[in-house]
Amino acid sequence: MRGTRPAVLTLLAAILITCGKKEEAAKAPDAGAAPIAVALAPVKQVTISKPIVSSGLISTDNESRLSFKVGGIVHQIYVKEGATVVAGQTLATLDLTEIDAQVAQAHNGVEKSRRDLERVQRLYADSAATLEQRQNAQTAFEVAEQAARIAEFNRQYATIRAAAPGKVIRKFVNEGEFVGPGTPVLQVNTAGTQDWIVKIGLPDADWVQVMVGDSVRVITDAWPGVLLPGVVGTINEGADPSSGLYQAEIRVLPNTYKMASGMFARVTIQPSRQQTVWRIPVESLIEGQGQQAFVFVAQANGQRVKKLPVQVAFLRGDSAYVYAGLELVGHVVQQGAAFLTEYSKVVVSK
Prior knowledge:
This protein is α+β, with helices and mostly antiparallel strands.
């Protein structure tokens, strides 16, 4: 029995060693495979700015929605959509029947209060009226005068006039309709040839890179193939609560190209603020998802590879720009990366 025990222990040790070897073989499925030929590419550190791409509608910050100060029936609209207007031109009027009556009523009130004041002043001079009665009559006269000024002012703004040269973009109501005070009647664009803008939204990662004055290229469907120059005009400091984006205005310089409000535009911003990144061939990236990806790096013996996670800043042409993960790496696998696993044997092509 004593001689049997060492033999059993020896057998168990052999079984454990065999199982361990099988487990290692299971973990390295490519252990017996032929080496895969790969080519390496150098990792280059560069300082560059990431182009930011967005889109929006062309408009102008000189668009105005014109309305009447008082409500009433629209008597006449003198312009149509697309019409060119000049400064001071009458664009629309209300029916003045009620408004003129209010003006006349206010003026009659002024005349009555003036007569009352003169009467009380004579009575006060004869000691037949008190000082309080004289002061009340004076106040009533001044109130009537202010009411007449209000009526005259309202009548003045019962007519819509163009404040500056421009074009009528939209007509909201028609003749004979009732409109309330401040209801938009016409939308007029008073932009000049250099007043066009594109409003875009920027996520916070792009917002921190963009500065006022950065150069922009603008492309529109109306002028395919034409790159219109532009510049970042304004950048909001607060995000839009509904979208979470920061609004920015791109000022477009159309030169001789005809523009119109509402045209769709794609913009590419070239930030002046630069960042240090690592440039590698785009085919070196594998398993990319968003900004997350992996690359293979040849180990020191040149026969095995190591899989490293990287953070991709952006892609441009046939290059990928990485801002994290390659700090201590000199070369990455370029050709053959798609066929590798962490256990692959490789042979590096010279």
